[in-house]
Amino acid sequence: MAGGQRSRYHGYSPDNPSGHPFTPEWGCMPDLPHPRAAPPTVRSGLLHQQHGGSGGAAPVVATSLILLEDGLQTARKGYAMEGLAKLDRIDISILVELQKDGRMTNVSLADAVGLSASPCLQRVKRLESLGYISSYKAHLNLAKITDSVTVFTEVTLSDHKREDFAKFESNIRLVDEVLECHLISGGYDYLVRFMTRSIQDYQDVMESLLDKNIGISKYFSYIVIKSPVRKDEIPLRKLLRH
């Protein structure tokens, strides 16, 4: 974001044990390398992120990688995954159309993909039974319902043994305000997306997590001011190059 302006909000850290948040530092701040982080290496389909520590050999955390390229190459040949039925051009078109409108009638869907109604319905049922379509949901216009604040939070754990990651993840899953949580390579451990009614509500959630002692060493909070791009549809044709 060279030349731009960014609001960086700091949360809990050892230098700020009270957890008092949201002291803005304006300006573009470069991302500094984490003192514990070593460059990740890829071996045998696993991402190895080595974390340094005091004394002895540093533990290694291995996270499985989804080998997208191999999977997409297979799908391009007509198979989405080993052991599952073929996905052809019409199947992919059905998935693309249903992403746009999950409530469209079978007749409209059949017209969109160039089928008659009966075989189109059979294909949809087949895609559902094989797990390609996991569910149908309504997208809410939240601005018409209530006020909300979205916060992205960088979380660094105190320790990096397998049980430390498991403890954090099992607890963060229970937080209703958490919409996403990702294990990240680089300068911190997790990127978490929260949605709360207000900044104060967000801080209450974070203080509750700190009180539970789930291994959080420090966190940095980034409040979303504006979302110029938001997409829910997976770019399926681009991923499959179909």
TrEMBL record:
The keyword Manganese does not apply. One of its GO terms (biological process) is alanine catabolic process. Keywords: Activator, DNA-binding, Transcription, Transcription regulation. Residues 1-53 are annotated as: Disordered. PROSITE patterns: HTH_ASNC_2. GO terms for molecular function: sequence-specific DNA binding. GO terms for cellular component: cytosol. Pfam families: AsnC_trans_reg, HTH_24. Residues 87-189 form the HTH asnC-type domain. SUPFAM superfamilies: Dimeric alpha+beta barrel, Winged helix' DNA-binding domain. This is Leucine-responsive regulatory protein. It comes from Pseudomonas corrugata.
